[in-house]
Amino acid sequence: MQYSEIMVRYGELSTKGKNRMRFINQLKRNIKHVLSAYPDVKVTADRDRAHIYLNGTDYLAVAESLKQIFGIQAFSPSYKVEKSVPVLEKAVQDIMTDLYQDGLTFKISSKRSDHHFELDSRELNQVLGSAVFEALPQIQAQMKNPDVNLKVEIREEAAYLSYENIKGAGGLPVGTAGKGMLMLSGGIDSPVAGYLALKRGVDIEAVHFASPPYTSPGALKKAQDLTRKLTKFGGNIQFIEVPFTEIQEEIKAKAPEAYLMTLTRRFMMRITDRIREERGGLVIINGESLGQVASQTLESMQAINAVTTTPVIRPVVTMDKLEIIDIAEKIDTFNISIQPFEDCCTIFAPDRPKTNPKIKNVEQYEARLDVEGLVARAVAGIKVTEISPQMHETDEVEHLIENLL
Ligand code: ATP
Ligand code: MG
Hints:
40% of the residues lie in helices and 20% in strands. It is an alpha/beta fold and 405 residues long. The chain has two domains: 5-167, VC0802-like (2-Layer Sandwich); 179-403, Rossmann fold, CATH 3.40.50. Strands 1, 2, 3, 4, 5, 6, 7, 8 and 9 form a nine-stranded mixed beta sheet that branches. The protein has a six-stranded mixed beta sheet with strand order 14-13-10-11-12-15, with helices on both faces. Strand 2 (42-45) and strand 3 (49-53) form a beta hairpin. The chain starts with a strand and ends with a helix. It binds adenosine-5'-triphosphate and magnesium ion. Residues 183-185, 187-190, 207-209, 268, 286-289, 292-293, 295-296, 343-345 line the site of adenosine-5'-triphosphate. Adenosine-5'-triphosphate binds at residues 183-185, 187-190, 207-209, 268, 286-289, 292-293, 295-296, 343-345.
C-alpha cells in the first residue's frame, strides 16, 4: 500500500487565540513553498490540521522536507481507502502483517466523523481487531502503550488509516513574527543566527556585503548557497548583495589600521538598517558571538551598534563556538561555511583590531569620509535575487558565469 496523504498537527500556534488563522495560513504558504519541487502535492489547512495530499509523490522525500518546516509539531502519513467494512478489514490485515514481529502489541483506535457509517467506533474497533487476529493469531492486543496504535478515521469522503506519529521541527511558522534583515557573511555563525531567527517565526532577508574584485564570485556563491540551505525551514528568501568595494577602499585609505574593523562594521550596520527601512523589516539579525574574536567585545559591539536604534538580535551571542558548530552541522551549513573563500572582512581586516574602540575616535575618523554619500551609493547599488529551495545546479552555474563577466 502507498501513503496517500500526510496529516499535520500544528505546533505552538494553538495557543495564539485570534491570530490562529493567520498563523495557519502562513504555515500553509510555507509548506507549499518548501514542497514546490513536487507539483502533484496539494496542501489544505483548517483550524485543527493541515493535510498534504501526495497524489503519487514519493512519501519519504516529502517527509524529509516536512521535518524541517517550523510550526509543525508532528505529522502522520496515512492510507486512504474506500469506506467499506471488507476493504477496511483487508487494509488493517495488510498493514499489521507488514509490521508484524514476534511479540508485537497493537490496538485499533477508530473515530467516526461520518455518523451515517454502518458501524460506530466501538464496533469498528472490535470488527477490525478481529480481522487482525484472523491474519495474525499470535499478535497481542494491548490498550495501554501498544507498539502500534492503528488509527482508523471514517470521514465523509473516505476512510483513513495511520499508525506513525513523526516529530516535526516545532518553532513558529516563518513570517508570523514579521521580517528581519540577516547580515549573512560566509562564516559559520551568521547562518546559524538566521536559522534561530527563522525558528521563532522571523521572515529573513539575507544581506551580504561583497567587495569585488577583492572578494571572489566563489565567496558570493557561498553566501547564496548558505541562504538556500535556510530556505528549507520556511520557504524562499530574498538575497541582497551590497556593493562594498568603494567603502572598504575609502576606509583603508583614510582611517588608521586599528579602526578599520570598527568603521567597516558601522558602515555595514548603517547600510543594513537603510535597506531594512526601505523593505519593511523590523529588526537586524547578525552572527556576533561574545569574545569569539578580538573584535567581538562588548565595547566593540557598543561602538558598532551606536549607529542605529533598531533592535539588533544576536541569536548566538552567548553560545560557545562548539555549540554553534553543532547547530551548523545539524542544519547542513557547516561544510559550506568552511569552504576557503575569503570575504570582505578577512581581506581588509588588520591583524590586531581595536578591542576597545573609542566612539570619540571613531567619529573623528568618520568625519574624514563622506559617510552619507557612501551609504547612499551602496544602497542604490544593491542586487536582489530570490533564492528558492529547489533552484537547480544549472541556475547556479549560470549565475556564477554572470558574476565572472
Ligand atoms: P560569521 O561566522 O557569521 O562570519 P564571525 O565569527 O566571522 O561571524 P565577524 O567576522 O566578527 O564574526 O562578523 C560578525 C557578524 O557581522 C557576522 O556574523 C555577520 O552577521 C556580519 N558580517 C560580517 N561580514 C559580513 C558580510 N560580508 N556580509 C554580511 N554580514 C557580515
Ligand atoms: Mg566572518
